[in-house]
């Protein structure tokens, strides 16, 4: 058995599913953030696999952009968590009910 | 042979650490599991002949983003009440989601793997090297690259505004 790019795509799908379930089921904001990172990373893995499949460098470039945007997203997410913690002394998703009015 | 063995080992490490990462109660152990997940992802990138992306993955994800997350968890001084356990009914949801996704994607991937879409291409000599990435990035993607600096600047200013003492 040789490893073909579509095996990597299957692996990426599995990791994306795990990340989605993490986002949907966990109440801790940190773990939700980590699950989003997992989903982004699985998309990156699929992009690199497609890039090799087509022998084209565009996938690598998109992965670079995606990593840079993930870094920005994580920093803003952490700032929001800290602001929420200052406001409520709690980081569970249950306290995020302010917008309901 | 060696390649498929490596792929199976790295893929198993990736899936197991990802599963551990989303099921731990303590966010610190969760992020330490994800460090290993990202390191095995970097090895998978290296196996896909993209050494530069693998290096960036280790530097930015394992070395930057996760260290930042662990640092913030540590300065926040979480109490016992902040640690929410995963309820068993969610494990049922996890299993259902995995079955649904696998059932949807398996036929698609089977059909695709029959077609010429997955036909192997001959790679150029320096595929995935920093040199080639640099030339493609600055010849074809210069404007998005410059826009990225604006996004990062916005993130910096946004973080400073959000985390001010008095909101």
What are the salient characteristics of this protein?
heterodimer, A: Helix Hairpins, 77% helix, B: 167 residues, mainly alpha, Four Helix Bundle (Hemerythrin (Met), subunit A), 0% strand, globular
Structure explained in plain terms:
- The complex is a heterodimer of chains A (101) and B (167).
- Chain A has a single domain, classed as Helix Hairpins.
- Chain A has 3 helices and no strands.
- Chain A has 101 residues and is mostly helical.
- By secondary structure, chain B is mainly α.
- Chain B folds into 3 domains: 83 residues, Four Helix Bundle (Hemerythrin (Met), subunit A); 34 residues; 43 residues.
- In chain B, α1 packs antiparallel against α2.
- Chain B is globular and about 55 Å long.
- At the A-B interface, α1, α2 and α3 of A face α1, α2, α3, α4 and α5 of B.
The ordered H/E elements of chain B are: HHHHHH
Distance between the termini of chain A: 58 Å
Q: Tell me the series of helices and strands of chain A, N- to C-terminal.
A: HHH
Q: Can you give the helix content of chain B as a percent range? A: over 70%
CATH topology of chain A: Helix Hairpins
Determine the CATH superfamily of the largest domain in chain B: NADH-ubiquinone/plastoquinone oxidoreductase chain 6, subunit NuoJ
| Helical fraction of chain A | over 70%
Number of domains of chain A: 1
Question: Total number of helical segments of chain A?
Answer: 3
Describe the secondary structure blueprint for this structure.
The complex is a heterodimer of chains A (101) and B (167).
Chain A: H1 5-25, H2 29-54, H3 58-88
Helix pairs in contact in A: 1-2, 2-3
Chain B: H1 2-23, H2 27-47, H3 51-76, H4 88-114, H5 130-140, H6 142-162
Helix pairs in contact in B: 1-2, 2-3
